[in-house]
Known about the structure:
By secondary structure, this protein is mostly helical. The chain has helices spanning 40-45, 51-81, 86-107. It has a domain at 67-109.
Amino acid sequence: MTRDTDQPSPDEPQQRPPQPAPPTPPTPPQMAPRTPPQTPLEKADAGHQRLDESRMWNVVSYLITGPAMFGLIGWGLDSWLGTTWLVAVGIVGGMALSLYLIWFRYGTQ
């Protein structure tokens, strides 16, 4: 620059004003994971201390009553039809249905 004016001289390099940083793209809002809506009974049971214990007793009752009920049905059919193998089929079928019901109710959560 010359001393008399504010104009730069032709042999001095011109200084550029600093360039602003490019704008950053907006980030998408972070969404909280969605939980399935709770029924009023599930809301009332949430945080209950003995909920796990009650589920355990439900499982035990399924394991006992399934083979007992289907075995009893098999015994009744055996005495009515004069066969001897339906009791075993009833007990095994009742156990299989009990295990399926337990898996369906408590294993898929």
